[in-house]
Amino acid sequence: MKDRVQLGIGAEKPLQNWADINWQLVKKRVRNLRQRIYRATKNQQWNQVRSLMKLMLRSFSNLLLSVRRITQENQGKNTAGIDGQIVITPEQRVNLVKQMQEHKLWQVHPTLRVYIPKANGKLRPLGIPPIANRVAQTIVKNALEPSWEARFESHSYGFRPGVRFVGYKLTLKRVEDYPQSYLVALTI
């Protein structure tokens, strides 16, 4: 990436071995930055939010964590995009990190269009982006998600990170305790 800090804060040498990465420290840095973005959004400090988002987009720890999520943790890690690239070995992951340091987030590659069958016999299209685009999407998601999470309604529970079924029970209990309030819809 154009403005990326090449080695990250406190790094002494470039990344050589995937096994040498201290994942607890990487996760702590990304989590800390996400929390700072969340707090700044809650306090409506918009210049701070913008600065922290830029910092997150350039963060080497965010890049490492994004590559790990896409190449090791995601269910579609063995699915190649239109470029046919699959990243399986630690050496390939290190090369992907180096490639993504030079990558510009706004330059995207075309997606692979695959048609999968539906229950009624018809086909629906599915777009599979290349690995570099998936990593870039994860980098941007880590920058944007905390800000939008802070703006959401506190009692909205659909597909949000860290929100579990317990939230539905608490909401339903609150409605039972206060007869003047009512529940419009509950989707499980």
Descriptive account of the structure:
The chain is mainly alpha-helical and 188 residues long. The protein folds into two domains: 18-151, no CATH class; 156-188, no CATH class. It is 49% helix and 6% strand. The chain has six helices and two strands. The longest helix is centred in the last third of the chain and has 21 residues, at 131-151. The N and C termini lie far apart (41 Å).
- Poorly predicted runs: none
Let me know the number of strands: 2
Radius of gyration: 20 Å
Helix content: 40-55%
> For the terminal residues, how far apart are their CA atoms?
41 Å
Tell me the β content: 5-15%
- The number of helical elements comes to 6
What count of structural domains?
2
Secondary structure elements and pairings:
Layout: H1 23-42, H2 46-58, H3 60-73, H4 90-102, E1 112-117, E2 123-128, H5 131-151, H6 166-177
Antiparallel strand pairs: 1-2
Helix pairs in contact: 1-2, 1-3, 1-5, 2-5, 3-4, 3-5
In short:
The protein is mainly α and 188 residues long.
Task: Give descriptors for this structure.
single chain, 188 residues, 2 strands, 2 domains, globular, mainly alpha
